[in-house]
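Complex 431.
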Amino acid sequence: MSVTALIGAQWGDEGKGHIADKLAAESAIVARYNGGDNAGHSITIGQQAVRTRLIPAGAFHPEVTNILAPGMVVNLKSLGREVDELNHLGASLNPDRLKLDGAANLLLPGHIALDGATETVRGSHAIGTTKRGIGPAYTDKMARVAVRAALIGDPDKFEAAVREHVAHSNRLLALYAQPALDAEAIVKEHAPLAARFAPFVADTTALVHAALERGDHVLAEGAQGTLLDIDHGTYPYVTSSSTITGGVLTSLGVGPKHVKRVIGVAKAFCSRVGAGPFPTELLDEMGARLRGTGANPWDEYGSTTGHPRRTGWLDLVALKYSARVNGLTEIVLTELDSLTGIHPLKVCIAYSYRDEPLTNFPTDIATLSRCEPIYSELPGWELDVSHVARIEDLPLAARVYILQIETFTGVRVSCVSVGPKSEIEVSRCEI
Ligand code: IMP
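Predicted structure with inosinic acid bound:
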């Protein structure tokens, strides 16, 4: 069969977790392809909202094999905590159901210390990272000094590699005038984790290809969002992994012919965590309204950091860019219900840059930070849409909003979520 790529189409936090959980039910494999425990995906198990950081959305689907693919950076401490938490809730994640690719890179304490140190040195230009060590872990991967998961099955080699890595990190930390890390303590902490997770190590690329040959379906689950992509995002205010469709191919080791569906998850408005340009940001009461009070788990507060997210109107210029760089075949629109009662609604359809209209999204931050949004106003609606089950029962203005997204991006909206637990499948949006 084929691979479905599930991609964050904006700056992350689009509500991918819930959609991934739904798609997992139809998949033999769910593979997380990028990032590490900087992600925070929300899924609902019974009445309980559960947050996952590393573990893919197939955790609670007994038939699904969950993969941590080579493109990830994995903190074994976090993994241990998360497996315990999810197993406590009934996930039964064992070496048959959870596979850690040997080529995935381990995220070690030196990375976390360096993430903090580099953010401090950046001062007012800090990226606002999650301080989980993501940037330094990918730096080590590219510098070819990382410790790969394949080593955890060999205690002696693993210990030697960890010691070498601590020495490497300490040399860098010294440059930032930071205290050295204690190699003994790190070895002591990581040896039992390595022993615990050694049976989970596998060649996941082979598993993915075997599944495809059997005719099974594979879901590639992304973390963060397109505009945080290391190559195609708003560099340097990005994460350090490939968040886009290209990242699926390199991480899972599959060719483009296998990827039949590329689903971009986009919120009906925009939000961003951390620093960096955000043309449609609202620093007023409307921004606060979109953010929510924090009383609900789906309000706009970082699930990893707890920080209030920056919020703003839907940016169609950015979404169209995202559709292009990912080759989106469909959009899943989330949180449409959050727009109920807002009149008029605004969507950004171009930027004004030095008094000239700009219709392409510039990833160069010097340009982007000087872009003023040009808005189109759309009518709002009053009806509480959170119980609507069919597209034709949505208010006309809501359907016009969806149609505007489809027309502008050239990508069909295949599903709309109207509440924390409810989606409407859209075969065709008509007004
Ligand atoms: P890092 O991934 O921790 O290095 O953070 C880099 C940037 O990506 C920061 O602006 C973070 O706020 C942002 N970021 C990282 N993970 C997420 C996420 O899951 N959702 C939204 N933003 C994220």
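The chain has a mean pLDDT of 94.
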